[in-house]
Amino acid sequence: MNAVGRGDFRRQITVKGDDELSNIVRVFNDMSKNIYQINSRLRRFSEFTFFLFQQQTEDDILNLTLEYLEKIFLVDCAEIFLQRNNQDTVLRSSESCNGKNVYTKDLYINNVTIGTVKIYRTDALTEDEQSTFGLFATVVSRAIEKIRDYEQVTQIQEELLHFERLSTVGIMVGTILHEVNNPLSVIMGYSEMIISEPLEKKNVQNYAKGILESSLRIKKTIDDMLIFLRRSDREKVCMDLNEIVRIVLRLKNIDLRKKNIKVFTELSEAPVKAYIIPNQIEQVLLNIINNAEYAMFQFHGGGILSIKTRSINENVEVVIEDNGPGMSEDVLGKIFDFFFTTKPPGEGTGLGLPIVSKIIESHNGKIDVKSEKGKGTTFIISIPRAHDDKETA
After folding, report:
1. Residue 321 domain-assigned?
2. Alpha helices, DSSP H only, in the chain?
């Protein structure tokens, strides 16, 4: 009795007689047993809820749900049915589900049924167990809804990112044409000379070498652009940010020279490695450089762009600095707001820097901006440093 009073409801009082007091003790024992079962069920349900909302995929949720249906309700068999876009899924805890008592609860999102949870038991569920089963189905529904909402938001972000990349390519189309047209003219000239003139073998070889070099230059330009335009993979790879800077500067080289903008780089001699999605970080750097290019050219017809990389404690950083017009405190406070732009209508979407911010956030990093009216702007991009260098892109 004292043990039960201390909360140990597993203890049972020994009963031998059939008198009224013994019957009261038996009722007390049954009550203690029920309380212990309810407490155990609630403890496991609390444990299940804790783990449930840490799952990353619907499959993880379904497997965990099946496991805890057996743990919480002591079922003969458990079954989950879930409707999906590509195919419906059915999971069972055993090959064939049979039982005297069958209980079913719907899974739903926004009042639309998306599946069912079914359990088979020899014994009937108590009223308390039925109530817990209903709550169980509700939290599973919410967990699946959370995963689907996240996937939908991620898809929208990826579409915005791709749209912004296409917009950037539109801005750079002059550079692309220039990079292709010049070597193409060389190829055509050498080809005409080979066709129209009798040439010595040595001259033919020299012309062929010029054709090959120009062809490789065109191929490099197209390859760089295709790499930039490719859809983002979700998986991060370990990569040196110095290489990302070099790729972006190759893409921007002609544009910056045409706008009379000098580029100075101070890249870390040691690799500055981080786990990144490469073309997303390329997009980040391109957006910031495009904005700096526009601002400096509008302000004084040219300028100086400085880019440096460095490792600081547990982070790697890319610092991009321009000597453009800078920004007021009011503008600085709004640059990461969607659809905010200081450019004239038709010249800016207001998507670039908000997407930059979201990309860096998804890399567990941060972006700081320092600017003063008339004194230029500095962007400092900081991303956690990679400690495992085994897999390097």
Report:
1. yes
2. 2-5, 20-52, 58-73, 127-171, 173-196, 201-229, 241-258, 278-300, 329-332, 352-362
In the block, tokens 């029920």 appear at: 34
Q: How many domains does the chain have?
A: 2
Residue 207: the pLDDT is 76
**Higher pLDDT among residues 202 and 377, named by residue:** 377
- Same domain flag for 249 and 391: yes
Tokens of 347: 């010249």
Distance, CA of 380 to chain centre: 21
Write down the mean pLDDT value for the chain: 79
Which amino acid makes up residue 137? Answer: A
Domain boundary among 132, 149, 166: 149
Q: What type of residue sits at position 34?
A: N
Domain that holds residue 67: 2-149
One-letter amino acid identity for 363? H
Residue labelled with tokens 């950083």? 317
- The radius of gyration computed from the CA coordinates of the chain, to the nearest angstrom, equals 33
Q: Which residue has the tokens 């897999």?
A: 391
Strand partners, 377: 322, 371
Report pTM.
Answer: 0.50
Residue 393 is predicted with a pLDDT of 45
Q: How confident is the model at residue 20 (pLDDT cuts 50, 70, 90)?
A: low
pLDDT digits (tens, 9 = 90+) for 111-159: 889 999 999 988 888 888 888 898 899 999 988 988 887 766 666 666 6
CA 186-190-191 angle, to 5 degrees, is 115
